[in-house]
Write a structure and sequence with these properties.
Strand content: 35-45%
Number of domains: 3
Number of strands: 26
Oligomer: single chain
Largest sheet: 9 strands, antiparallel
CATH class of the largest domain: Alpha Beta
CATH topology of the largest domain: DNA Polymerase III, Chain A, domain 2
Strand order of the largest sheet: 14-11-12-13-26-25-24-18-22
CATH architecture of the largest domain: Roll
Number of helices: 6
Radius of gyration: 25 Å
Helix content: 10-25%
CATH superfamily of the largest domain: DNA Polymerase III, subunit A, domain 2
Distance between the termini: 65 Å
Length: 366
């Protein structure tokens, strides 16, 4: 192999590939990135056996070849030669020589043929979505996915198509987020459950890419394909919870409040919340009263009255302050709606006028 390419572009893609490598000492090849030439392009591959990624970048190919080298070492080398514009890579007998205008570096590589194959999916259903639309919707629901792997179905993001919409859903059983976006493509019947740790890596890979993504779906895996990137990931084969049955069809109490007023109050109130992050809401539409209070026996207590539009029945409810902050951070509207059905049932939070987003959080009873 003998190639020349832009250092900055190479560094960006090596860093992305390195994040997907496995830190598995028993399989050193999984710690590596594979460099392989293809006509006028350099292909960069990495995998941790859960997620596999392949980038394609421009390069001046003087001699074809391939090599597997340590992803972390290569990434650090490129980071520490920021003053170089062009970089030359040559390989002889698995020894990789990196040359620039001012530097010469030699590192030992691994046998490229030992690198795992990244599956190519050519069957199943498919759909296409702009990358930034996909990323934005995923980021909106990530907060609600369960962190623990005990229940893989909910330690995931669920994507499915219904009518004219594409839905993105996550839940940890204490809260739930649903985001939908208009969908004009061909219908597909198979919902996708992507593990949370995999979807986080996919977000990082496509975050700065503005291209359409073609999804190809099979029972065990999916692939995401753009002009310059190919990603494959394992999916969960289980059944996602039938969450729609717990979404309230109506409400007995509704609060419309400026988002920033609510955030400012929650910031103060959270200073006095207990170990459960309990925030108490006291709502009385007849008395035009909307109070938020917290109490910590070791610190003290606070109570704040907020101006809001209130309708319906009086209610008192305790909610998790962290869950509230997570929700408000992804709502773009200036005002939010809080819908309640008494103090023992979930609260629903939406942005005023936004029909694409629903956030449901369970009350605290302790």
């Amino acid at each position: 192999m003998n190639i020349t390419c832009d250092r900055e572009n190479l560094q960006k893609h090596i860093m992305s590939a390195e994040r997907v490598t496995s830190k598995n000492s028993s399989l050193p090849i999984l710690n590596s990135v594979l460099l392989i030439t293809n006509n006028k392009n350099l292909i960069i591959r990495s995998t941790n056996l859960e997620v596999g990624v392949e980038f394609q970048i421009d390069a001046d190919i003087k001699k074809e070849g391939k090599i597997a080298i340590s992803g972390s070492l290569f990434s650090n080398i490129l980071t520490n030669i920021p003053d170089e514009e062009k970089i030359n890579i040559s390989v002889i007998n698995n020894i990789c020589k990196i040359s620039t205008k001012n530097k010469n570096i030699t590192i030992k590589g691994l046998e490229a043929d030992d690198f795992p194959t990244i599956p190519i999916i050519n069957e199943g259903e498919s759909f296409t979505i702009p990358s930034q639309n996909f990323i934005q919707n995923i980021k909106t629901v990530l907060m609600s996915a369960a962190v623990s792997d005990i229940k893989p179905e909910i330690s995931s993001v669920f994507i499915y198509q219904k009518d004219k919409y594409l839905y993105f859903v996550s839940t940890d059983s204490f809260r739930l987020t649903e985001k939908k976006t208009e969908y004009k493509g061909e219908p597909f019947s198979q919902g996708i459950i992507i593990p949370i740790k995999n979807i986080i890596e996919i977000v990082k890979i496509f975050e700065n890419i503005n291209e359409n993504i073609l999804f190809k779906i099979t029972k065990n895996q999916i692939s995401l394909i753009s002009k310059t990137v190919y990603v494959t990931t394992r999916v969960i084969q289980g059944v996602y919870p039938d969450y729609e049955q717990i979404l309230p069809k109506d409400n007995t109490t509704e609060v419309v409040v400026l988002k920033q007023d609510l955030i400012n109050t929650l910031k103060l109130s959270s200073l006095f919340s207990d170990k459960f992050n309990k925030i108490n809401f006291i709502i009385n539409p007849q008395e035009k009263k909307f109070l938020i209070n917290t109490k910590n026996t070791d610190i003290g207590e606070t109570e704040t009255s907020i101006i809001a539009t209130l309708t319906g029945d009086p209610v008192e409810i305790a909610l998790n302050g962290k869950h509230l902050f997570d929700c408000l951070n992804v709502i773009k509207e200036d005002s939010v709606i809080i819908q309640l059905n008494g103090g023992a049932k979930p609260a629903v939070i939406k942005g005023l006028g936004d029909q694409s987003f629903i956030y449901l959080t369970m009350p605290l009873t302790k």
